[in-house]
Design a protein that fits this description.
By secondary structure, this protein is of the alpha+beta class. The chain has one domain. The protein is 22% helix and 11% strand. The chain is built from 7 helices and 4 strands. Strands 1, 2, 3 and 4 form a 4-stranded mixed β-sheet that branches. The longest helix has 6 residues. It is globular, with a radius of gyration of 15 Å. The structure holds iron/sulfur cluster (SF4) (2 copies). One iron/sulfur cluster binds next to loops. Pfam families: CxxCxxCC. Belongs to the UPF0260 family. InterPro entries: Puta_zinc/iron-chelating_dom, UCP006173. This is UPF0260 protein C7455_10748.
Length: 148
């Protein structure tokens, strides 16, 4: 990967490896959201996708996730314009899309994959798997976005 590529290379010019490395490992995009049909307001819950590992905050089956969870969104430089608004506020893909810098705790900046957890930005230890909570009860699990 090129030195501090995230500060100087446009997303569409990043290598696949650089693009993947933008993910900070927070796991927040793997939490289910609830949308109010009348107001359009979106609330985050701590009910996680069935493939999320609550300890690592990574997908348990990343390579085949689209087969197992068809609704999982695949981020690309081309689709960011459509999806950035509902990504977590601290998501590196969203920050880069909005022309903002990465936070100090991002592993690319800190050089340490643990800082995203130490800063309280990730979902480590706070999630419940979606197969344990009926959808009609998700309302009881609404949270504020960690780290914001
Ligand atoms: S919210 Fe963004 S940075 Fe965090 S895990 Fe999801 S894609 Fe990666
Ligand atoms: S399939 Fe994997 S990457 Fe997609 S939402 Fe679920 S845990 Fe996250």
């Amino acid at each position: 990967m090129r030195d501090r590529f995230w500060e100087k290379v446009r997303p569409e010019r990043m290598t696949p490896e650089e693009w993947e490395a933008l993910c900070d490992g927070c796991g927040k995009c793997c939490l289910n959201k609830l949308e109010d049909e009348e107001t359009g307001e979106v609330a985050l819950t701590r009910v996680a996708c069935r493939l999320l590992d609550d300890e690592t905050c990574r997908c348990g089956q990343y390579a085949i996730r689209k087969t197992l969870v068809p609704e999982c969104i695949r981020l690309t430089p081309q689709t960011m314009g459509d999806v950035a608004y509902f990504m977590p506020e601290t998501c590196a893909y969203r920050l880069i899309h909005e022309g903002k810098p990465l936070y100090w705790w991002h592993p690319l900046v800190s050089g340490d994959t643990e800082t995203v957890h130490e800063a309280g930005v990730s979902v480590r230890g706070i999630t419940v798997p979606e197969f344990e909570v009926p959808e009609e009860d998700w309302e009881d699990y609404i949270i504020e976005e960690p780290g914001t």
